[in-house]
Design a protein that fits this description.
It contains one helix and eleven strands; from the N terminus they run ββββαβββββββ. The chain is mainly β. Strands 4-3-11-8-7 form a five-stranded antiparallel β-sheet, with no helix packed on it.
Length: 170
């Protein structure tokens, strides 16, 4: 079982307690490649990692809420296929195109968060990474996902859909 990207034993309970509920999170990123408004490819990546920075952000906001809590909607992409790591705080090599603001809605259920953002490219790139951030520049990286290359040319678009599903298990 994974907890926000970390593998934990079934039945894990903090500080030696037993019978506590465990919050479980599962992420999925979908990338739709569009050329002239027509879908020419789609990729789905499941069970990727959220970052340690995001987990720390969650804990900090349980203690002192910030206005930034509802701002994890900024999509960015890049060209570095170095494997995801929970310690990531940014993309490996961003394309340099401004982050786009995604929509924020429930996913397929009320305990699933979804953000959808479409990036329009200004040149040719082999896009292999996506990140979801809390600000249009800088900010906290919630999730970095690496996938096989989507080769884009000028004016191509990739519509990224990021989902994170939360559930509680007893």
């Amino acid at each position: 079982m994974k907890f926000l990207g970390w593998k934990i034993k079934r039945g894990y309970a903090p500080r030696g307690r037993t019978g506590d509920a465990v919050i479980k999170a599962q992420t999925k990123t979908t990338a739709r490649h569009l050329r002239n408004g027509i879908e020419i490819g789609r990729r789905e990546v499941h069970n990727k990692k959220v970052t340690t920075a995001f987990v720390n952000f969650l804990v900090d906001n349980l203690q002192t809420e910030t206005a930034e809590w509802g701002d994890f909607k900024y999509h960015d992409s890049g060209t570095d296929n170095t494997a995801e790591d929970a310690a990531n705080t940014g993309l490996g090599t961003p394309t340099g195109i401004a982050r786009v603001t995604g929509t924020q809605v429930d996913g397929d259920s009320t305990n699933e968060y979804r953000s959808v953002g479409t990036i329009t490219y200004d040149g040719s790139y082999a896009v292999v990474e996506h990140g979801l951030f809390s600000q249009s520049s800088g900010g906290t990286l919630m999730d970095r996902t690496v996938f096989t290359a989507i080769n884009v040319v000028n004016s191509d678009q990739i519509e990224f859909t990021f989902d994170i599903l939360f559930s509680a298990e007893a």
